[in-house]
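Practice record 12: protein with alpha-D-galactopyranose.
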Amino acid sequence: MSPGTAWIDNLVSVCLEEFGGAEVPRVAVAPGRVNLIGEHTDYNDGWVLPMAIDRRIGVAFAPRGDRVLRVHSVVFDETRELSIDELAPPGGSEWISYVIGVAWAMSSSGLGVSGADLVVDGDVPLGSGLSSSSALVMATALAMCEVSSIPWSPVEMALLGQRVEREWVGVQGGVMDQFTATMAQEEHALLLDCRSLSHSPVRFPDESMVVVMDTGAPRTLAGSAYNERSASCRAAVEGLQNADPGIRALRDVTTDFLEANRELLDETTYRRARHVVEENARPLAMADALSSGDLNQAGRLMDESHFSLRDLYEVSSRELDLFTDLARDHAACYGARLTGAGFGGCAIALVSAEGAEDFMQSTHSCYRSRVDLPSAVFACRPVSGARLLDL
Ligand code: GLA
């Protein structure tokens, strides 16, 4: 569904039913994302090339006159009430945590937050690697800025969203998801340098589409090996600093340097580092390929990225490998890879627009005949970041 469709109208009615109130609630939305390429590079100060998709999380909100937050989730049919002044980390990783984590991060940054009634719903599949949690965080942040009369500053708020993930939820994530949820532009992917935060839009070619292939295998970022991977990257940096103390992150390492100093790292740490160093070159190469309409090259880069995530970084799964293999067998497919952290969840394929329907049908039916999980496929297009809706 997209803005203006049933779940958004329902959000407003539920807010009125649950919380009453004199004011008609307003609605903030933020999109989920796919990452086209540059996986596990963001927390290494590297490059990424994500794209916001036309699936969103929405937060209906109405101000209160006190310091209380009342939050209702339509999906979980659950309501919580708490005081902003009593929030202290760690916050846990259930849905409500991402909402109240925003209030905590804002007030602990010295922003004067006011109480609010909030109702949450959306059509980003949950826990499947499309960044529903960052969409929830950024839609909540926009709602909280509005009720608290705080001017919306997308970059500052993306960094605040990253703090929620790191300090409140306890996952040592990068800034890619939050940045995409606030800064994405319609019809464009976003080339982002996660060190400087400089970014530029990359026009997504009209003659192609991104198809999301949801394996149906669940993944939970907080419970996964994500923090273990980021610890390996830090260990690699520490090892390589023995050869060059100027290295601050794997972003600063070239393939030649890594090979020349391979003996400073144990085998696993070396393989993790090699993925990151090689992957970090792919977003720029992919941006060039998309801009020049070289979809075969774009697809090749995606395949290489997947193989590296599978063999070197070891974050793929049987289902992700199968879905991407089946995708590559179809004539309309340029390339396919897992997207997001991995360990289950979604893969994406770059396909020709004219072959997309047939691709989705036949690839999904082959997958379903082999895997008995609630899988799904859908085509998506690039949309813009968090915004308030005119209802
Ligand atoms: C998750 C994190 C991101 C990024 C990806 C892997 O989505 O939230 O910051 O690290 O995994 O690229």
